[in-house]
């Protein structure tokens, strides 16, 4: 009986360690959780595949809502227009300073 409990515990620990990248990705709400889990399940048996899945699960997730993307585009446009205005003003100032 004790041998069965120890074997079950060892299997549970081994499966948990094997799927650690998938578990971490799920807990961190990573945008690629499903892909990481599939990658981990298929290639996790190789040490390199498991390490890649682990590193991937720990990278920041870049899932942005459409609203966030729109705001980021507006901010980029604002920065671009502002830089163009400043450049133009500097050119005018240089041209007018000769008078």
Tags for this model:
single chain, 99 residues, mainly alpha, 80% helix
Q: Can you walk me through this structure?
A:
- By secondary structure, this protein is an all-alpha fold.
- 80% of the residues lie in helices and 0% in strands.
- The chain has helices at residues 2-18, 20-27, 33-43, 47-58, 66-96.
- Helix 2 runs parallel beside helix 4 (47-58).
- The mean pLDDT is 89.
> What letter string, H or E per element, gives the SSE order?
HHHHH
Mean pLDDT comes to 89
Instruction: Please tally the helical runs, counting DSSP H or I stretches of 4 or more residues.
Output: 5
What structural class results from the helix and strand content? Answer: mainly alpha
> How much helix, percentage-wise, in residues?
over 70%
Write the layout of secondary structure elements.
Layout: H1 2-18, H2 20-27, H3 33-43, H4 47-58, H5 66-96
Helix pairs in contact: 2-3, 2-4, 3-4
Q: What does this entry show, briefly?
A:
The chain is built from five helices and no strands.
């Amino acid at each position: 009986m004790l041998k069965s409990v120890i074997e079950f515990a060892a299997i549970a620990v081994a499966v948990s360690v094997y799927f650690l990248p998938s578990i971490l990705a799920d807990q961190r709400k990573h945008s690629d959780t499903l892909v990481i889990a599939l990658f981990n399940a298929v290639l996790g048996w190789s040490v390199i595949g498991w390490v890649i899945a682990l590193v991937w699960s720990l990278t920041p997730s870049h899932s942005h809502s459409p609203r966030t993307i729109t705001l980021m585009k507006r901010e980029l446009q604002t920065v671009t227009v502002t830089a163009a205005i400043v450049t133009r003003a500097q050119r005018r100032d240089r041209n007018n300073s000769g008078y």
